[in-house]
Each structure stands twice: as structure tokens, then as C-alpha cells.
Amino acid sequence: MTTDDLIAALSRAPEPVYPNRLRNRILLALGLGFIVGVFLLANTLGFRPDIGVSLPAVAMKAGLSALIATLAGGLALALAKPVVRDDKKVRTAGGALVTLMFACLAIGAITIFSTDPTQRFIAFTGGGFPWCIFIIPFLGLPCAGLMVWALRDGAPTRLALAGAGIGAMAGGVGAIIYAMACPVDSVAFVTIWYVVGIGISSGLGAYFGARLLRW
Amino acid sequence: VTHISKSASDFSNNGQSILKPLSCNFGRACLVLGANEGFVADDEQHLHALMIRAQTGDGPATHALLTALAPKLRGFFRGKGAGKEDSEDLVQETLIAIYTKRDMFDSNQKLLGWVYAIARYRMIDRWRHTKRRGQEINIDLFEQTLPAPINESGDPTRDIARLLSSLPQKQRAAIELVKLKDMSIQEAADATGWSVSDVKISIHRGLKALMELVGDREPKLTKETTS
Q1: Are the C-beta atoms of B70 and A3 separated by less than 8 Å?
Q2: B62/A10 touch (CB, cutoff 8 Å), yes or no
Q3: Given Cys at both, which of A27, A52, A211, B177 links B188, Cβ 3.0 to 4.6 Å?
Q4: Does the distance separating the beta carbons of B67 and A7 come in below 8 Å?
Q5: Do A12 and B59 count as a contact with CB atoms less than 8 A apart?
Q6: What is d(CA B166, CA A207) in angstroms, rounded to the nearest whole number?
Q7: Which of A70, A109, A100, A97 is nearest to A189 (CA)?
Q8: Closest approach of A65 to chain B, Cα-based (Å)
């Protein structure tokens, strides 16, 4: 078949497009991913027993995570479509995301150094190994899977970067969910380990995204 | 070219020169004229407008768009060092991708940037397939041993027809009737006894499957060099 024949075949009776399909799929991935993640939490770690009393702390942690998830979601949405090297949307969303995450780490570091030296280690680790760096990506897994499904329907051209965006978004969603279980409310703990957890999720996303997002 | 003249004339009302966008259809002339800034801007604007119309299901606009893009893509792949055969395969894969993913174009994007992003992706994807199989393609050598006939409109005997034959029967039939035999969707529905929406869905699924086959397929060149 010649290229001209192919063009003729493709342009015969084309269908009109549905402009919001990608956005709807991403919203579905976000909503359903969150719900499944909450079920996952309820059936594994369970919610923190004092969730009613400590609601402000939970809301603060979830809020920070939601902010990261939103910026990462914007990045993933921009990268779901073919983009040029220095695409403005990608740069804005990516820049904002990276800045926010480093700002969190900086706040964490400042908080630790302004803590009484005897209390520093406890504030830093939350009194044990910060398991949340693995739990956060785990709880974001349903969201990540659905995001891959959403983006495969799109046309991402920078797969690792798109995967990193998906990972950060899913990590943010995972962190919102984990906030409902996590008993540690210290500022340093949250701004450091939550962000590290989301970072790990993002790294995993970049690795698997480069493979799973091919179309 | 008649298609394009028709669609280009539709743009005369926005005050743009009709002649400039038209000249991009003459293959190489385009490269020369491309040096002119004004022409590049017009070209982008013209193709962008065609894409917006293609998104609404406008057949002639889709035809004009793909026809204008084919020589540009050919030049792009040849410029990146792909052989004639290889580059024609890539041109076809990219055109299919542009068509099936046309809903992934935002009207506030630059069309040519979008097109070349897809072209680059398809090229990298092809390299990945070749690399994974541990085979090297020596493009220069291949070109010397098998000089392909120069044909401005693209080489014949490409393997889209072979790809089509690997689709499920219903999807293949729907695509063949409507896309290749020029039937309307209604006529195809009457001929097969399927409903109109059934035919539409089969075409849509078939094109999607075709897209996936293109992605998974072993590059044609590799087959030939190993067989």
C-alpha cells in the first residue's frame, strides 16, 4: 500500500474526536485510585485509632500531599500528549513540583536544627524506621495503575518523564491515604519522609513508565 | 492536490495568502521556501487550521493535512539518517499515529511541534525494537546494496495491507469497506447487516489495533536483512 493510499484510507469517513476523554480518564484514575487505596489501607494497617481527635494533623498532612499530587497530576496531564522539548506547561508544572518538594525538605531540615538536640533524632525518624517511604508508594499503586491505563490511551512521547509524573501523583494520593493511618505528626517527619516516599514513587514511575507507557 | 486547493481556498477569508500554503505540496519546493519566516508561520497556521477541522471529522481537511505532512515527515526521517524503505515505513506509522491520536492535539499547541514530537517518538520506538533484538541495521550499507526507486509520493508495496490482514475479521471488514472501498458507513452497514454504530465501533477498534500492531511490529528492514 502506498503512502497516498494510506492517507486516502485514513481520511475517508473520519470520526469526530471527544476532547475530554483523557481528562475524564485521569479524573477517574484519581477518584477510583483513591477509593481503592483507602480500602487497601483499611484492610492492612487500618486507620489511626485517634483519627477523630487528631483530624487537624491528618488534614495538614493530607493537604500537603494533595498539593503535591495536584502539581504532579498537572505534569502527567501535560505529558500525556506529544510535547516539544521545552514545552511550557511541562516546565511550569515540573518546576513547581520540584520546587515544592525541595521546599518541604528544607522546612524539614530547618525544623530539625531548631529542635532541642536531645529530641532531634526522634523528630527526624518519628521514633523508629520511617516505613512510610515504602507504604506511600504501595498505597498509591492503584492510582498509578489507573494512570498508566489513562495515559496509554493518550500519546505520551517522553515516557520516563510522564512515568515520573504519574509516580509523583500516585505517591501524593498514597500519602493522602497514609495520613489517615500515620501516628507521627512532627513537622520534620512529614516534610522529609512523606516527600521522600513520593520521590521514591516518582522514581519507580519513571522506571516502569518508560516500559509500560509505550504505544 | 485538488483536495488541498479546495480546502486551502476555505482559508482565504482569514486574510492569508492562498498561494503560500498551497506551495507546500510541491515536495522539495517547500524546503527552499521554508527558509522564509513568513512562510513557516503561514504553513503552521494553515496546517493547524486543517487539524482543527480534522478533529471535527472533516474528511477533506484530514486528507489535506496528512498529504501536506507526508513530505515533511519523509524529509525529517531522511534527515535523521533513515534509509528510504525505513523512512517510508516511519512516515506511514507516523501518519497513522497522527490520525488515531488526533484527539491528543490541543488547539493552543503548535501543530508542527506536535507532529515532530510524534515522529521522533515513532523513530525512537523503532530503534528500541531493533536494539532489543540485538540486531544492528547498517543503513548506509543497506542503501548501497538495495537502492530503492525514488518516488516522490512514497514507495509502493508497503506492508499496511499485511498488517490489516492480522486484524479480527469484523474490524478488517469494516475498515476495508469504509476506508478502502469508499463506502459510506450506512452502505457498509447495509452490506454487512451490522448496525451503523457497530460499523463505526469496528472501524475505531480496528484502527486502534492497527496502531498497536505498528508499535509491536518487528521493523520490516530487520526481517529482510535476517531472512
Answers
A1: yes
A2: yes
A3: B177
A4: yes
A5: yes
A6: 32
A7: A109
A8: 29
Best probe of the B interface among A6, A24, A214, by most B CBs < 10 A, is: A6
If 0-12 CB within 10 Å is exposed, 13-18 middle and 19+ buried, where does residue A136 land? buried
Tens digit of each residue's pLDDT (9 = 90 or more) over A73-96: 999 999 999 998 888 899 999 999
Which contiguous run of DSSP H or E holds residue A65?
A: helix A55-79
Question: Could you write out the DSSP letters of every residue in A150-182?
Answer: HHHHS--S-HHHHHHHHHHHHHHHHHHHHTTT-
C-alpha cell at A152: 496509554
The H or E element containing residue A117 is helix A117-125
Q: Using an 8 Å Cβ cutoff, are B158 and B92 in contact?
A: yes
Each as own residue / partner, the long-range contacts of residues A47-50 (CB below 8 Å, 24 or more positions apart, any chain) are A47/A180, A47/A181, A48/A180, A48/A181, A48/A182, A48/A183
Nearest to A15 among B88, B114, B204 (CB): B204
Phi first, then psi: give them for residue A6, nearest 5 degrees. -60, -45
Q: Write out the three cell numbers for B148.
A: 530503492
Q: What is the pLDDT of residues B75-99, one digit of tens each?
A: 999 888 888 888 888 898 899 999 9
Residue B152 has pLDDT above 70, yes or no: no
φ, ψ of residue A117 in degrees (nearest 5): -50, -35
What's the Rg (C-alpha) of chain A?
Answer: 20
